Amino acid sequence: MVHRSRPRVHLLTGGPDWEQRRATVKSVPFTKRQKEARKPLLALMEELREAVERGDWASARAARSAAWVEVNRLADNLTTDERKQLWRYKRRIVAGEARDRARRAGQG
Fold this sequence. Notes:
Blueprint: H1 18-23, H2 32-54, H3 57-73, H4 80-107
Helix pairs in contact: 2-3, 2-4, 3-4
């Protein structure tokens, strides 16, 4: 039940619509100190990318684990994109392992 005194939907008249309000947000570039702190993480992300491209799933899992350790050392606002990438890499690793297992089972 929605309380009438506090409705969940507010109808706005005039002013910018949702897309215009979101478009005004600008990302703040990293400072030199933040860039320096992110260097080990970026190196691990590159290692992870290479391992996934090679199909070396054991190395990819190790690189992903090391990258998570590095992500957890840094502030959340510095690693938002990397957290999303790590989740995507996890799905790629699991799918690649399953695909390789299916290939081996089909050959055997």
